[in-house]
Queue: 3 jobs
Job 1
Amino acid sequence: MIENNLFGAVSVAALISVVTLAALRPAAGALGLIDKPGGRKLHDGDVPVIGGIAMFIGMFAGLLLVKDPAYQLLPLFAASSFILFVGVLDDRFHLPATVRMSAQIAAVLIMIYGAHLPLASIGAPFGMGEISMGRFTLVFTMLVTLTMINAYNLIDGVDGLAGSLALIALLSVAAVAGANHIGSVVALTVSAAIVGFLIFNFPTPWNRKARTFMGDAGSTLLGFTIVWITLGVSQGSERLVSPVICLWFASIPVYDLLTCFVRRMLDGKSPFTPGRDHFHHELMRGGFGVRETLGILTVLQATYAIVGLLAHFNGVPDVVMFSAWSVLGLTQYRVVRFISRHHSHYLHRKGAGNAN
């Protein structure tokens, strides 16, 4: 039954996402869902912020074709609706952080108690056997989920970036789950909705007039959905992949968030202070354009995901993969800065050469 539904679910999700985006664009201005340039926002012209709504509608239109009692889609719909609704209000009215965080916590509680998807085990990252969170399960699940939600939210600063990174994570989960697993079907259906959005958001010359942003509604929805699907394949007695491996599927957003938070605190600032210190900002300061920045970060994330997949299918121990992931995280900012500075020096030498 799952195999029969897969093609239909994916096709409907992509189609409805595209149709919804096209239909909502004319109404975005009347709804106040327009992103205007200014301040830290350097894009050109007013851009509709309706991508999150379109992905949500496309995603669940496709999932209506998936009927599997082992996977509770109703709690996913309820929690995602909450995330989306508050995200849309934030895009429109710029809600206080406490309101946004409260909504995200409520969605996590639905995930834990409504769908029974807690992060109860983190695998064996220290080589001392499986680590169960026990009495800390609720707090730890909350912490990890909120981190992931906001990691995808904060990295959404370049056209196509958050969607592309989410797509890599979801396709990686689908790869370890296999075509016949319900988690894979859901991951591929959400992926199709993202592809529909990227038609309007990926930085290409031909879609400039149809340019659309996903907004906080979209980025937080993607982060939350990725956690939900990942827990479905990495927890319980029938888990398909270690949670440690799953870290590799979302490395760039997590590294970016943690790097920004640590650097801000070292500078004596609140970690939640907005700033232009993300990976994409660093690359663009080095002279890279939007497409080049998107390409670099997407290739890095795809590489890390492939490493995770190879490790999974070859049975590499958790302790090895967690150690490597941690070391990579500690050096990731230096890697990005090296790429940025090397390109900046190249442009300087090129400019000097042309002047002569």
Job 2
Amino acid sequence: MHLTTDSALHKSSYADVRLDALLSITGRMDGFLYRCRNDQSYTMLYISDGISNISGYPPGDFIQNKVLEYVSVIHPDDLERVFAAVNTALEAKRNWNVDYRIVPNFGRAVWVREIGGGVFDDAGDLAFLEGFVIDISDRKMIEDSNAYLMTQLKDLNELLSAQKQELQLAKQKSDHSANHDALTGLPNRRAFHNQLKLAMDGSHASNSAVGLLFIDLDRFKEVNDTLGHESGDALLQHVSSQLQTLLRSTDYVARLGGDEFAFLLFGDPELSRETAVAAAQRVVEKLRIDVPSPAGVIRVGCTVGVAMYPADASDPKGLLALADRLMYVGKKGGRNRLMTVNELEAA
């Protein structure tokens, strides 16, 4: 009996210590504890003093729902979310963790976080709901501020990204305009000179050859004088599209200005003068164009000067000058034809 009494006293003393500790901790926390029945009104059986700091109402107003039901101080916009969180947790027999607002009898709403759970009896039926609620207003303010800053930062990043994209597009357009002919869309003289140098450098490194076709239209001035510059521009655009149909993946065509075009064949170690001549013949055939006019059909054609690197010239300037000269000699010799160094020497 003596041992039993000591054991009972020990248990009672331990329970008192736990209760004192719980009450002390509860008094220090910026929040409160509660337990309520599982009935229609969630009758409050216990609620700690911290409820008065958060809601402005004394604990006694809530005990047995004497003055207020606890749900009456939950912000109406949050009620549905709170009930959903609690019901979902109870069905799964786990704790709920939900943030919501309490509407106090002073000032503005207070954000709280509730962590709670159900207390089930031996039969497995829900008897009570209990939990603790802490004030998270300061944390919520920081979270909202951070969320706002993150939104601002995201918007700023999207704006900067859009501006960067616009700048890139503007640069691409600027680069394209600087290196392409506005009328035909072909690379212009500037781009052609750069490409010619690259082709020659690449040819030197691979011991291959570069073929240059210098193309000048025949009777283009007659089209302009007879039908006007609009018809002349339309003809140049048609010539451009025709030349592009002859391009291989390694070929390059450009408009040098006026009715002059240049066609580069490069990058193929098997390239020879015969290959370049064959390409020039296809150009001559492709650019035989009949242009109707009131005075009769104007038979447009072209004359092509064919020069090779390194066989005919040693640098870009010399190769272009030679091809231009060959074209000029071809014009003097009857137009609508091609001219090579071999033919020039024979002549």
Job 3
Amino acid sequence: MKNIFIISLALMLLAVSCTENTETNKKEKSVTATTEKLAQYQVKFDIEQPRLGLVITRGKSFLLKLNVFKDDRNIDSLQYLVNDNPYLLIGDSINTKNFKAGLNIIVVKAYNSDGSKDIQSTEVKVISDIKPEIKYPKLVKKYPHDVTAYTQGLIYINGFMYEGTGQYRESMLKKIDLSSNELIQSYNLPKEVFGEGIVEHNGKIYQLTWQSHRAFEYDLKTFNLIHEFQYDTEGWGITNYGDNLIMSDGTQNLFILDPESFATIGKLQVYDNVGPINNLNELEWINGKIWANVYLTNTIVIINPETGFVEQKLDLTNFVPDTYANPHDNVLNGIAYDQKANKIYVTGKRWPVLYEINIE
């Protein structure tokens, strides 16, 4: 009897095991079949219009046309995104009124009847609908400037001019008496770095370097080095951008930075009515706008900080010292703003003079 019981129990366990294996096999086959079914499909649609590379003037509309492929699925719903923000599509066209300068990414998501989802994207390049007004600043006053200073950054704080200079083995941070050009305080950067733009933010000064991917944070009063940051791009110019900072790298791009970590948290592209403005260099925040030197030119562009479009251009050709009438290296660079007195200062690399200027 004992043997019979053991045999019966074994047969029961075997039957349960076979049942479980059968159910498992069914589930696996079902999953495999579903996967194979999905695998036989390509994407349900692609974007026929606009094609990559479309250049359009802000405010104009472009056609959004999808090419839907035939299979046994239906598209249940579509979602549209412009630069990661939901866009309510009315009809079959998208208006660029609220687009930013430069490349704007259009994403379409399709939710299909079988539970699958397809995503396609394209991009349009938006130029300004406004031709920037060209202005010619007027001279208010001249100040002496150190001809050995390869000016990269310039800021005005409480009666003193702070200057960041470049060149390997020569780069410095300086505090200068504006009226006498007397050096009040200085800090020498490491010999292996090339100093670039500077900005004051919350009682600290930040200074970029050109190709070393290093930025230095100093105490405003003592010039003591507080911290060193790393970043991925070249460093050219830097200024305030609300609670954050914004930096140029010699292209048409401006990078919005977290001042606590120096991490990039956004990007602004700079365009006029023709195309991108490259070689953006020294930056300054003045009356709600970003002013930027355009390297190797006598031009300062005034940029809308929300859109990236250039609203005005300043021609400072008449301020270039005769010595640098045909500049190669010693070019216009350096913009500072006295917010309390509403005064604007400009200079250039190794220029003998710093100017206070005025524009209407």
